[in-house]
Design goal:
By secondary structure, the protein is α+β, with helices and mostly antiparallel strands. The protein is built from 3 helices and 7 strands. Strands 1-2-3-4-5-7-6 form a 7-stranded mixed beta sheet.
């Protein structure tokens, strides 16, 4: 089952935690992609993407039931309004996917699937999902709202990190 919360709310909350000093980032420098420890009870793999010291995107891979006997992860992403339209989502998802591929390869997984549910009235997110996951979405409805949505499902090979 896919998540039922707004990813933008999660990004706002994480940025607030960073400002209040409640969220510790490993590695110190706030550039590029950083894993967020302990999100969603540790079940999901979450990342913040930084540009010029600011968290501009959040990416999360939450495990969902296997599809065709392959591990499957539900993708959620949010970008700040200031970063919207500048490629921040594409950069963050690309970097997070590379990290996920490496971690799964290290754990002995050969292949996995990533799904994303995108509302039909979000053309920018649909174009991104089509280019990163699959050009052939399946029509569905969003479980959280009942609105028309598209389900994208992409297959990836797990590859060791460089």
């Amino acid at each position: 089952m896919t998540r039922q919360t707004d990813p933008a709310d999660t990004l706002r909350a994480l940025r607030g935690q960073l400002q209040m000093g409640e969220l510790e980032m490993r590695g110190g420098a706030r550039t590029g992609l950083h894993a967020i420890p302990g999100q969603a009870g540790g079940a999901s793999l979450s990342f913040l993407h930084f540009e010029d010291g600011e968290a501009v995107a959040w990416v999360d891979f939450a495990p969902v039931p296997p599809v065709e006997d392959l591990p499957c992860y539900n993708l959620a992403c949010a970008v700040t309004p200031e970063a919207s339209g500048r490629g921040a989502a594409r950069a963050a998802i690309g970097a997070a996917l590379a990290e996920l591929r490496g971690r799964l390869a290290q754990a002995g997984t050969n292949a996995f699937l990533v799904e994303a549910l995108v509302l039909e009235d979000n053309p920018a997110a649909r174009r991104l999902a089509e280019s990163l996951l699959s050009p052939d979405p399946i029509a569905t409805s969003a479980p959280w709202s009942g609105q028309p949505a598209c389900r994208y499902l992409g297959r990836f090979e797990a590859t060791p990190a460089d």
